[in-house]
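Retro notes - structure team

What went well: the batch runner handled both jobs without manual restarts.
What didn't: labels got mixed up in the shared folder, which is why I'm recording both outputs here explicitly, each with its sequence directly above its tokens.

Job 1
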Amino acid sequence: MKPDQITSLAPSPDALRRAQSLAHARKWTDLGQSGSYLWGSCQGSGSKAYLVAVDTSDFASKCTCPSRVFPCKHALGMLLLFAGQPESLPVLALPEWVGEWRRSREGRAERREGGITNNEQGTRKVEGNPRNDKRINRMMLGMQELEVWLQDILQMGLAELSQQPFEYFEGVAARMVDAQAPGLAGLIRALPGSMAGEGWQERSLSQIGHIYLLLKAFQKLEQWPEDFQDELKSLAGIHVKKDQLEAKSGISDVWEVVGKRTESQDRLEMQRLWLWGHHSRQFALLIDFSFGGGSFSYNYMPGTALAGEIVFYPGILPERAHVKLPVKVQAGEGVLIPGKSFSDFLNVYANALSINPFLSTYPAWLSGVSVFSEAENIILLSDGGKKIPLHPAFQRSWELLAVSGGQPLSIFGEWLANRLLPLGILTSNYRWINLS
């Protein structure tokens, strides 16, 4: 069992981060394994330890904790522990409670052979009406609470909201995790970060509006076309599994790796890799997670190219993708992305927003960008003389000035919160410089 198999099971990055803290033998008692079954006890916040069991043959899990997220952090933590330290779970006879769970699962499997189970009937209903899905109903209830909270903070006012401690937002985010809407939880956790620096009022109000628009659209889920439903589900935290993507046909091309960005939170790292198809002439985004210094599934570097097939996740504007193996990694053939002026890019971005109003990042390839130093700050100007705002997360602005040598640059990056986060440069003599 590999850690990346476990990461694909997690309902959110936050759930993975919490599970990582439990991937230590000292956090557990009564550990054991027999065949494909793992079990143990994990002390929670209550007086009694939680009983946790996992079947590694299909990753089904059982836990006595009150979480409504599946799999819960305890089941994920046990799987991570087993992947890293299998010797910490001795081979023993099944405890009675695990044996009872196994017999119950075997009974359901036998009934399935004779006809359609209740779960299968539920799945068929979901295809006709998403509200019949238990998870979606749970998410709807959580969103009702979130809507009340959003109305309360608007009545509170941005000035008072900006003075609230992190715990104020974390409590609501945790409620969204319990409601199995980790995507909304992530948006709420990002709110405090939007309340810093110049123009914070506009950014935070925009973020609040973004959350409100998402939950109102989700509350009318069954009214939207299928691709828009897929987009809303993904934003809220319902993700298509990779094995489902493997069964679909994709786009074969030579995919140039043009940008890379990583984010860290505690021991959890997220990697974003941008690809450009030489023949399809479109961008694709690979998102990957790593824990505790582990390696990423996608170990591709800017300047290389992938000759193979990728499959896009469903949505309105396909962007996130999955690489189907095998794939040939080779030296890059040269960056052939047609750069745009800043004005043209803003028009393209505005059109993308009209199709998908929930866009949070967008690939930006800008040509004719001049770099200047002004009062110890680096300024980017478009070929039309318009200032291009730099994202505060970018820490290599002086390198832009040094590389430019007074000549215009072509810059690739992410357009994030109406600011540019550069990821790479194409110099006037066609030399590619990675900024990640």
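Job 2
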Amino acid sequence: MPLLLAAALLLLGAAPASAALVYVKAEPEGATIFAAEDDGSGARELTRGRQPQISADGALVAFLRPVGSGTQLRLVPTAGGEERVLISASSIESVAFSPDSKLLAAEVAGRRLMLFETDTSRMATLARGFVKGFSFAPDSTRIVYGLGVDATARGRADVYKVSVRGGDPRRMTRDGRSLLPVWGPQRIAFVKQKGTDRTGAIPAYDIWGMDERGRAERRITRTKVPEGVSGLIPIEWSADGARLIAQYVGADVRVGFAVDPRNGRTRSLRRKVAFDLAADGSAVLTQSGGVDPSRRHNVYSAPFEAGESTLLVRNASFPDWSR
């Protein structure tokens, strides 16, 4: 194994000394974020907000807090303490930490891919336009992202990559049908729109893979996708690149799937929403009850292979862990 790849795998697969879990509960004062051990024990109230994301080293939690007509992106230590406001915007979509926990990226106001240093709060804009998903490289030095011509789901889009230090991006696909990339240890997973023969505003997807140069494209999944449903989108790789989790998505559908990227075989996670994959690929962090906030949700750890899920937290949603 090349030395650089081995180092990247060690970085991606290294678990923090004590893995942690964060999640949201509906409390009388509003949506409240809790932190706990990754088995759900030792829960403690952390702050008010939504969509928590925990850093890979388990030290920081990024979250969103509605303020007036806008949203703030904030950071707080997992152990509790002073919060920092990174940015206020009309809207903030996806948020993710780099594998080394030193950087945080976010889709801001639907038109910017922004990067923040977690220790200094300094920020920079890496890309402008209609961002269609993003993901850090395992070594945290680059970001791959989708960029579309408009905000619609059916608009043309391609995948690009750029250094976290900035500079000119490199275009990786040129078919106008590629978006939502997820960078793994050996391959980049992304989706391609199946074609233009569907009616309506919802496109159909399958998962593909390519190398980090944008070459050696290979189709991973082959799913039948009915009208009103988009199909599978990739979420996260295991540290060794042998396992991938995905979400089956549609207008009112979110169901997690385990994917074998070598042969494209898929398995539903028993009608649960997938949120995260343990670095060793053994377990998937899931939520029952779909994504409708009015329904009851529980948080589970589900085996990647077939088996019974373990209940972690009752009446909780939108989990993330550093396992």
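One thing worth noting from job 2: Residues 3-321 form a domain with the Neuraminidase fold (CATH 2.120.10.30).
We'll revisit the folder naming next retro.
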